[in-house]
Design a protein that fits this description.
MOCOS_middle, pyridoxal phosphate binding, Pyrv_Knase-like_insert_dom_sf, molybdenum ion binding, MoCF_Sase_C, alpha+beta, 7 helices, about 475 residues
Length: about 475
């Protein structure tokens, strides 16, 4: 009876002006909260059909980097492995990685670039009258955390074809139009619809068009998927700001059908002194997402995303192995060399040298230095004299020794990029660069730049490296850095 009385009173309240006002206010509020929750979760946990996520399953091997330094002069071992699919964005930690002559697989495969305009003046003498003409040139130029620290907030995921779900061999077709026999040309557009001849569908074309469409949308047929995420904060809601997780998906090794459908173009992208022809696949990113990305990064110039063109790699011209004068070494979008090695004990030693008032004192994260191979075991700075090492297992193209050799091209010269915190993207005004300049100007050729870590060149075509692998120092000596710009 009490329940009936309560229900009656409840219905009576809802029928009253006060109840109607409450409904008008509460229902929209509930609906708003529900839709906001769904919108904010957009781009959350998901799977890529036909693919497996390439990631270290357990906790990070760098989780104990501050308190688990091995005894000095112990055996050097691979502590942790990182690849950075997009240059200067967050890396992916792995338990093992394939290594090629151009570095760890998937490392620096992509790079953001902004369009930079410059004026070039030319004067001409026209019958005693001097005339000056200004020509405006435009050039795509790569960007990094040096000038855009918020790149550190762009997380990346690697999804590779799952062999258990497909029997098809993933396309690893080179994107060069020459390799594709003209099927992928700069600026070529794709028109949907069935091919016809005199208005009559060609025999068998419908089936082929359907198969082609499947290959365009099939991630596994395009080498897998790169996922980029970033938190985009919006203002103007009744509760203030709201954060939306933006997700961008890109093919790792797109086949010619997808390249044609998305109208990829080949353009020159400047990276230091090189301007390799690279693949502009910005059409893969929705216009709205690209606009939000520009705002998030604080970039005002036109922004694009480029992929390495396997047929237009950059030549390594410095620090080459003297005993291999006829071999050619290549690199993609890495700064200058294929692989970067860093000794964790050396990072701890730099941390100890930081001034007491430094905010980063006692918590200098090794990830700031964006190495591929993090090493534990040797004493601090022992790697300064490494000239040649072996690590992992060679599979193809190894030298007669049958081991996975790496040539140390040079000590790694350091800029201010490690001043950027890898999690917050906040850039310290001084440290650790100021301390590095004070304590690590150890290479006459690199001065006035400080050095930390080693830049390496693999001396084999294909191999594999795993966390825990022993590193054998094959040769030691003295490095002299060769400057890029002279």
């Amino acid at each position: 009876m009490a329940r009936t009385t309560f229900l009656a009173h409840y219905i009576e309240f809802l029928m009253s002006p006060a109840g109607a006002f409450a409904l008008l206010f509460v229902l929209p509020l509930v609906f708003y909260i529900y839709t906001e929750a769904r919108r904010r979760s957009r781009g959350g946990t998901f799977s890529i059909p036909g693919c497996l996520r390439l990631v270290r399953q357990a906790k990070s091997n760098l989780g104990d980097q501050y308190n688990s330094i091995a005894p000095e002069d112990s055996t050097p071992r691979v502590k942790s492995l990182f690849v950075y699919p997009v240059k200067s964005c967050r890396g992916v930690e792995l338990s093992a990685s394939e290594v090629t002559g151009t570095g760890l697989k998937y490392d620096r495969l992509f790079s953001f670039a902004q369009l930079v305009s410059s004026k070039k003046q030319a004067s001409a003498d026209l019958g005693g009258i001097s005339e000056v003409n200004s020509e405006v040139s435009h050039q795509w130029r790569f960007i990094t955390q040096r000038e855009v620290p918020r790149l550190a907030l762009l997380s990346t995921e690697l999804w590779i074809p799952d062999p258990r779900k497909t029997a098809a061999t993933p396309m690893h077709t080179k994107l060069s139009s020459k390799v594709a026999n003209g099927s992928v040309a700069p600026g070529l557009t794709y028109r949907k619809g069935q091919s016809t001849e005199n208005g009559v569908p060609k025999a068998g074309v419908a089936s082929r068009d359907h198969e082609s469409a499947d290959r365009i949308e099939d991630w596994s047929a395009n080498g897998g998927c790169l996922v980029i995420r970033f938190p985009y904060e919006q203002y103007g809601s009744i509760f203030g700001s709201a954060t939306e997780l933006i997700t961008v998906k890109l093919p790792l090794q797109p086949g010619p059908e997808r390249a044609k459908a998305k109208a990829y173009t080949y353009e020159s992208m400047a990276i230091w002194k090189d301007c390799p022809e690279s693949v502009n696949l910005s059409n893969e990113i929705e216009a709205e997402s690209l606009a939000k990305l520009k705002y998030f990064l604080g970039v005002t110039n036109p922004l694009a995303l480029f992929r390495v063109d396997d047929g237009n790699l950059r030549a390594v011209t410095r620090g080459l192995p003297r005993d291999l004068p006829d071999e050619k070494f290549k690199v993609g979008f890495a700064d200058a060399f294929p692989v970067h090695v860093l000794n964790i004990a050396s990072v701890r030693a730099v941390d100890d040298s930081l001034p007491g008032e430094a905010k980063v004192k006692g918590s200098l994260d090794s990830r700031r230095f964006r190495a591929n191979i993090y090493v534990s075991g040797p004493a601090a700075f022992a790697e300064d004299k490494w000239m040649r090492i072996s690590a992992g297992q060679p599979l193809i193209g190894h030298r007669t020794s049958g081991i996975a050799e790496y040539h140390a091209a040079c000590r790694t010269a350091r800029c201010t990029l490690p001043n950027v915190h890898p999690d917050s993207a906040m850039k310290d005004r001084n440290e650790p660069h100021a301390t590095l300049k004070r304590t690590r100007q150890v290479d006459e050729g690199a001065k006035p730049h400080p050095c930390l870590g080693l830049s390496m060149i693999p001396l084999f075509q294909q191999g594999i490296i795993r966390c825990g692998d022993k590193i054998e120092v094959l040769e030691e000596g003295e490095h002299v850095y060769e400057k890029m710009f002279k």
